[in-house]
Design goal:
The complex is a heterodimer. Chain A is 39% helix and 33% strand. By secondary structure, chain A is an alpha/beta fold. The longest helix of chain A is centred in the C-terminal third of the chain and has 11 residues. Chain A starts with a strand and ends with a helix. The relative contact order of chain A is 0.20. By secondary structure, chain B is of the alpha+beta class. Helix content of chain B is 45%, strand content 20%. Chain B has 25 helices and 22 strands. A 6-stranded mixed beta sheet of chain B has the order 14-18-19-17-16-15. In chain B, helix 1 runs antiparallel to helix 2, helix 1 runs antiparallel to helix 4 and helix 6 packs across helix 10. The interface between A and B is medium-sized, with 25 and 26 residues.
């Protein structure tokens, strides 16, 4: 399972695919104060990205992946 | 809603007006740099303003306009008629949204879709015009440069600019746009933006791609194109070079030269706006949220200005309002070191005029009028005083107060004056659109726009003037073929001239079209029963022409799409007369028509001629008085009860004010009668009164209560001595 839901934290692991989009959206809808852990995420499907951008949950752990860290993290991280 | 929102509505309208004016100027002279800058500024400021109120579709639309104009400003695109049409459409749509926001406090439901379409059209118009431009990449603005340079890059390129708009359905083809972007070689900038504003999660379709990607790469175009070979139709690639990087300013030097000129006052304005937002009252969470937004905005500006050191300092005070506002103050203060926004404060303050609620102005006006009445009691006091010295002193004081009240009244009236350009400017737009639609090339010349008149007068004047111009275009100016056949220049001419006159303002709308044929007008008026057949023979040419203002008259055989809107020339006349003015027409067949509108300086003050009848005083608006004569009885012809006199243009029916008002007949023998010649715009008329008195200026109040239904009166005013003066509505009486 590339995304594990652990209480109020969603942990992204490895290459997270388009199939995760609906469960992720559903989980974000139900979970108040949701946070995301991108540390182990190596690829984030665009469908997942747009769900995250629409909700902007708190980023608990930034991605180690340099591409995501450089270009995607600033979009998710609240200023 | 809130005062801030009201202010936004006012400013948005001003900006749209300014944008229209600039766009017209630009269309007239595509090389007008100043017009491009003004237009860009209007869109830019509007974008900022809409952003404050979370009006995403509105922001998106004006943003598209701004992008397009940035291209034009930077010389990458030209303003073609198609592009101008699109920009006008964007301005019109914005205007409708502002109206809607005022009425309903929210944008209509279709706003997002409308904005999307218009924005796409704008961008398409731009690209259709200029596909080969050196850098046809709208999003490459100053911020992008700053973002690149923030990495310490001094590279001028060439870069490959990528504008990638994935097909919304692309996920079903197995595409992953973000992963494609990851594969762009030598990526040095990636921006991800939503296409549509984000919806609530429950309504969102996560399988529809709502993102677009903007990227810069140092790799050559072909290398980047290879990455997108599965989606060639969704991506635009172009090679761009960046302007050479400017040296970093040392602390203490003036404006950052990396900033495009004209941008830094903007930064100052935005910063000051942030300080203002910070100072707004509100519940704690709201202030907290606003503070977050302010920190982001200030951070972006600092990044754009290339002042990253200060940006770092900013994050330290993100939780402290006082420190934050002091920080912004330092950034905007003229004496600050590393001052990037010098001179902006005074410039924007000078531009910002005071706005006052018209109701408060009216209240002030009413108070001044009351003061005038109160002052009128002083001479009475002086008369009653038995002490001659005191009486003299009271009179001296009364004179002084008299003078001051006069000056005060004048000063208050001046407050309400606005330039006539406010009502003349919309004409350019009307003529442009209409001339294109009718296929009649027309040159509109406006002059005298600086002439000032009362705001109420302008409000009244606006529609009628537009109608006159519309009429000139529709009925006056001939089609180009016909003009050519007549030996006239193919381009018609409409001149609108405003001028100050002694008692008010005059606006003239003149065309060089077909003119009006009096014989036709008369025939039509007879046919419609507007004129008595036996009166017709006695009518002068001017009198006949003025029949076009009669209710139910229309000179055009067919009701055109333009003028047939229920606003006839009679509506023009009634609007003008309601404001105490008059309208007249001059025309020469084959040479053109001139319509002249004369209006008093203000509607708040009506100038009346005071006349006497049966011992009572009545006021008659000066605008309707054509002349005053004493006529020997012998010159009045009488057939039974119907009396008439002979004037310049023929026989004029004569009425007696006593009879009109149902007062007793005047039995005193007299040699001559005091006759008032009336100019009611239609058939001439004359009225016998007992005597002429002074002219007076008064604040006319409409009849209220029981008196409201009374016919023949347009209101009452108070004379200088405190007496109430009924003002007659002669058209109703006759």
């Amino acid at each position: 399972m590339p995304i594990r839901y652990d209480g109020t934290v969603a942990r992204f692991d490895g290459a997270c695919t388009v199939d995760e989009a609906l469960p992720l959206a559903g989980w974000l809808e139900e979970t108040a104060g949701a946070r995301i852990d991108l540390a182990a995420c190596t690829a984030l499907h665009t469908a997942l990205l747009q769900v995250l951008l629409a909700v902007r949950p708190t980023v608990e752990a930034p991605p180690d992946d340099p591409f995501l860290r450089r270009w995607i993290l600033p979009l998710l991280d609240r200023a | 809603m809130s005062a801030l929102f009201d202010q936004f509505l006012i400013e948005a309208r001003d900006l749209l007006e300014a944008a229209t004016a600039s766009l017209l100027r630009l269309e007239g002279n595509p090389a007008d740099r100043e017009a491009v800058n003004d237009l860009f500024r209007a869109f830019h400021t509007l974008k900022g303003a809409t952003g404050l109120f979370d009006l995403e579709p509105f922001t998106r639309l004006v943003h598209a306009g701004e992008d397009v104009l940035a291209e034009v400003r930077d010389g990458h695109a030209a303003v073609t008629p198609a592009l101008a049409d699109d920009l006008f459409r964007a301005i019109d749509q914005s205007g409708r949204w502002v109206d809607r926001l005022e009425a309903a406090q929210r944008l209509p439901d279709d706003a997002a879709a409308v904005a999307q379409d218009l924005a796409a059209e704008l961008r398409a118009a731009l690209h259709a015009d200029d596909r080969t431009a050196a850098t046809p990449v709208a999003w490459m603005d100053g911020l992008v440069l700053a973002e690149l340079r923030a990495d310490g890059s001094t590279d001028a390129g060439p870069f490959t600019a990528v504008t990638y708009r994935p097909d919304p359905e692309c996920f079903f083809n197995g595409d992953d746009p973000l992963e494609l972007c990851r594969r762009i070689p030598d990526l040095c900038l990636l921006r991800v933006e939503p296409v549509e504003p984000w919806m609530a999660l429950a309504e969102m379709d996560p399988y529809r791609c709502n993102l677009r990607f903007l990227a810069l790469s140092r790799a050559p175009v072909e290398a980047v194109r290879a990455v997108f070979r599965t989606a060639p139709d969704q991506v635009e690639l172009s090679s761009v070079t960046l302007p050479p990087p400017a040296p970093r300013p040392e602390p203490g030097t003036a404006a950052d030269p990396a900033l495009p000129s004209g941008e830094d006052p903007l930064a100052g304005a935005i910063l000051r706006e942030q300080a203002r937002i910070l100072a707004l009252p509100g519940p704690a969470e709201e202030r907290q949220a606003r503070r977050g937004a302010v920190v982001r905005a200030v951070g972006n500006i600092l990044a754009a200005l290339g002042r990253s050191a200060e940006r770092a300092a900013l994050s330290d005070m993100a939780a402290d309002d006082a420190a934050l506002s002091a920080f912004i103050d330092r950034l905007t203060a003229p004496a600050a070191s590393a001052e990037p926004i010098k001179g902006s404060a005074s410039a924007s303050q000078a531009r910002r005029a005071l706005r006052v609620d018209p109701d408060r102005m009216d209240r002030l006006m009413a108070l001044v009028a009351e003061l005038g009445v109160a002052k009128a009691s002083l001479p009475g006091l002086a008369r009653r005083s038995t002490d001659a010295g005191l009486a003299q002193d009271i009179r001296t004081a009364a004179d002084r107060i008299d003078g001051l009240v006069g000056e005060l009244q004048h000063a208050v009236l001046r407050l309400r004056l606005l330039p006539l350009s406010r009502v003349m400017e919309p004409m350019s737009r009307l003529v442009r659109d209409t001339a294109r639609r009718l296929g009649k090339p027309v040159e509109l010349t406006l002059s005298g726009g600086e002439t000032e008149a009362d705001k109420d007068i302008l409000d009244i004047l606006g529609e009628p003037l537009l109608h006159l111009v519309r009429n000139a275009l529709d009925h006056g100016i001939e089609p180009p073929e016909r003009r050519a056949a007549l030996g006239k220049p193919a381009t018609g001419s409409i001149r609108v001239t405003a001028a100050q006159e002694r008692d008010g303002v005059a606006v003239e709308v003149a065309d060089d079209g077909a003119g009006i044929d009096p014989a036709q007008v008369l025939a039509k008026a007879l046919e419609k029963g507007i004129v008595d057949p036996d009166r017709a023979g006695a009518m002068g040419e001017r009198e006949i022409l003025s029949l076009i203002f009669a209710p139910g008259f229309s000179t055009s055989a067919t009701v055109s799409d333009l003028s047939g809107r229920g606003v006839g020339m009679d509506a023009v006349r009634s609007a003008v007369e309601q404001a105490g003015g008059r309208v007249e027409v001059d025309s020469a067949v084959g040479q053109g028509t001139t319509v002249r509108v004369r209006l008093p300086l203000t509607v708040s003050i009506t100038r009346v001629l005071v006349v006497e009848a049966a011992g009572e005083l009545f006021g008659i608006p000066v605008g309707l008085v054509g002349g005053m004569v004493r006529l020997p009885k012998a010159e009045i012809r009488a057939v039974k009860h119907a009396e008439s006199i002979v004037g310049r243009d023929g026989v004029i029916p004569l009425y007696r004010l006593r009879r009109l008002l149902g007062l007793g007949e005047d039995r005193r023998p007299r040699e001559a009668e005091a006759v008032l010649l009336l100019d009611l715009g239609g058939p001439a008329a004359a009225v016998v009164v007992d005597g002429f008195r002074e002219r007076a200026e008064l604040v006319l109040r409409p009849m209220t209560g029981l008196l409201r239904g009374l016919r023949g009166y347009s209101g009452t005013g108070v004379l200088g001595d405190g007496r109430l003066l009924p003002v007659l509505n002669l058209r109703e009486l006759l």
